[in-house]
Amino acid sequence: RRPRAEPWWINPAPDIDFHASSVVGVMPGADACVPVDALGRSTWQVEAGSDRQGLRLKGPSITLAPAPGRASEPVLPGTIQCPPDGQPIVLLADAQTIGGYPRIGHVAQADLQRLAQLRPGETVCFQHIDVDEALARQRAQRARLARIELAIRARLAR
């Protein structure tokens, strides 16, 4: 009797190692008042106050240059803001559209879904990337999702 091969051709390897700190790509923010490596040199822990609006992080306090009279500016999911206590907040799906805290970075869109899955006490590290790397991550994610969709459609058509 010949072994039967399943037509399920999705790589079963997990995309995420749930036992390690999540590493997400971040691009520099609009505010130059923050050291370039302030996010990338530490591991950040997710705080219990996190929700669908923002992932509150705890770690070494980020010291910002004073910015008196700061006006609110547009923000979107993935924006990393730094309130006066120096503990960053990554804006998520239900984030406001305007924020007054300095924008110190922006998470690559392909990494946002992973951040949204983190629970209090889990950790995250930021890796500095450029726009080209962020776009490459997004293309790879879309290609994987397209393969999954094709495999599901093929399976359902049987």
If you had to describe this structure to a student in words, what would you say it looks like?
The structure is a single chain. By secondary structure, the chain is an alpha+beta fold. It is 22% helix and 23% strand. The chain is built from two helices and nine strands. The mean pLDDT is 85.
User: Nearest-angstrom radius of gyration?
Assistant: 19 Å
Biggest sheet: strands side by side, in what order?
1-8-5-6-3-2-9
What does the oligomeric state look like here? Answer: single chain
SSE series:
EEEEEEEEHEH
Q: Report the sheet with the most strands, covering strand number, pairing sense and barrel closure.
A: 7 strands, mixed, barrel
Which stretches of 5+ consecutive residues score pLDDT under 50? none
Give the helix tally.
2
Shape: elongated
What fraction of the residues are assigned to beta strands by DSSP? 15-25%
Index terms:
two-stranded antiparallel ribbon, single chain, 158 residues, seven-stranded mixed barrel, 2 helices, 23% strand, alpha+beta
Topology:
Blueprint: E1 22-28, E2 43-46, E3 54-58, E4 73-74, E5 79-81, E6 89-91, E7 98-99, E8 103-107, H1 109-117, E9 123-128, H2 131-156
Parallel strand pairs: 1-9
Antiparallel strand pairs: 1-8, 2-3, 2-9, 3-6, 4-7, 5-6, 5-8
